[in-house]
Amino acid sequence: MATEETLVLVKPDGVARGLTGEILRRIEAKGYSLVDIKLVEPSRDLLARHYAEHEGKPFYEPLLEFMLSGPVVAIRVAGNRVIEGFRALAGTTDPTTAAPGTIRGDLGRDWGLAVQQNLVHGSDSPESAARELEIWF
Ligand code: DAT
Ligand code: MG
């Protein structure tokens, strides 16, 4: 697979906790390239487009409310197999059981809320990456 790009978001919990630098450090230490980066206060409409696949699920409204709760850092990251590579760095969705060594496993936990506050988003396929990068950049 040739060099590809993915969308990484540092979610509002990551920004509020001052973990943006630590998350960027892990991406750079892995050897991926930061192509573009910005601090965003996303609109509800932008988030609805981003999370369209989850509309109707029980966590959808809490997810949008959470993502509207503060600024987000959007990053365009490049590298060979970076889409699956960043998903591996991030760890699985639930931070309680995400493997130690991953961003979610090392830095995240369950706060007893209706939505998983798990610090980061990473695109899950080439199609998602293209769609999401178009939305955020
Ligand atoms: P991921 O972010 O690992 O790709 P996803 O796309 O399935 O996970 O879900 C998007 C976000 O929604 C996820 O980061 C946290 C939240 N979420 C997913 N499943 C959830 C659940 N069962 N309960 C609470 N929040 C959930
Ligand atoms: Mg996802």
TrEMBL record:
Keyword Transferase carried by entry: yes
Cofactor(s) required for function per UniProt: Mg(2+)
KW Nucleotide-binding (keyword) present: yes
EC number: 2.7.4.6
Signal peptide bounds: none
Family according to the record: Belongs to the NDK family.
Protein name from the UniProt record: Nucleoside diphosphate kinase
